[in-house]
Amino acid sequence: MPNLVDRLSRGMAVLGGSVLSILVILIFVSVLGRSLGTFGHWDWLEGVAPGFAGWVVGTGIGPVTGDFEIVESGIAFAIFCFLPICQLYSGHATVDVFTSLMPARVTHALQTFWEIVLTAVLILITVRLLEGTLEKYARGQTTFLLQYPVWWAYAASFGAAVVTSLVGVYCAAARVMELISGRAILPGSGGAVH
Description:
mainly alpha, 6 helices, 0% strand, 74% helix, single chain
């Protein structure tokens, strides 16, 4: 089971990274297009090289239509794709001002408690995403510019949230087993400790 959860978490992280990379390229192309379109409309360029300015404007160069809509949907999905690996490797930021002074057993108990709480929150978010997906589907809501159904983005995020919740349940159960048995089950912490 640990290998399956690890592979699933890593696969989701790769998927999220791929989506994020595509979004970066989209933003670059959109900003470049917006800049070139603005350049074609400069009064100075129209005065110095009116033919070239007319050509630039005539090409239709501009921002990618609906870039904000795509980025908004893609970022939400990417975040949910990164959560499983973050959960599995305890990659969430922690502040241990007080807990570093406590005995190891108490620290493990606190870590187990917060693992269970975070898993409950992840499940709640997943359920709410499902409800949101069904509501957006029923209403037929679409994005303003591209007119694609909003529920598509919700459904993609819901799918990633389901994986996140499953990994969270595994991690919470593993933390309880670690607390009971005293042996490590989950990979070591890679979190940012402050």
